[in-house]
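Support request, please re-run this one:
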Amino acid sequence: MKHTISKNCLILSILVAFVLISPAAIASNIINYRIVSAKSWELIIDVNYSYSGNFGSNVYVGVKAAKDGKDLRYFGFRPKKVTGRTGTARITLLTTGSSPASFTSNQLAFILYTSDIVFLKEYFPYKKVWSKRTYEQRTNSTENNSESSSSRAVTNPEYKFHKKGRLVIPQTHLFDLDSGRKTQVGADIWFRAETARLRYLTPRNGAKIALLGQLRGMPSLAQCKASNLSNNRILINAIPKNSWVAVKTNQGRYSAFKVLKTVGPSPGKLYIYFYTWER
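Re-run finished. Output below.
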């Protein structure tokens, strides 16, 4: 009998360990980006990503320019291979010789893909006026341009953040988006549970929130400011995976967070990635 119990305990321990290290524990996601250099015909971009591992080892990060959710076709990029479960890839996006002399985009579309499938695409706001690459520019992509020097980092004003990062909030806990941590003091939002089924995100200490829903990419600062922010609580069941929530924190900053997983049965956990803009 002792041997049977010990064997069952061993099997259970192995199963628990497998669940804890399973690739599904980390979702594939484009977390954020940073413009390293910008020219009228070229962007060099650092992309922070996470990868679940579900599509094997030959997975790549790419980027396209887009306008109003539609990818533009006048570009090529130099992809980078995913090298771990989380990481940063530096990608160069270039206009082609067949592009118009001048045109605009208002988004960047980041992708994770294999040779068979694009399994993730995320749109982020980024406005830019592009120009067609000349022959000299095609043969010398390091040449300086009047828009920006490649030796100087250029940051989109939309991405001047006070804090950003990943949080896991257990049910009944509170969290603060100014400090980027779980806390009982000065928190912005309470993951409140009235019953096992009635669970809410409840703003605290003068913070305001608004459900933006499932967007093509990260909301802009302007979208958050224009959202219907209030001190009304939001039912957890109304916030599915990949939904965005806009926040005005109790210190007056605007913030947005993405729900990375569907909140499980009570007692559940809220998995988010948040961005809090500078004032």
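The radius of gyration is 22 Å. Helices lie at 2-21, 135-139, 221-226.
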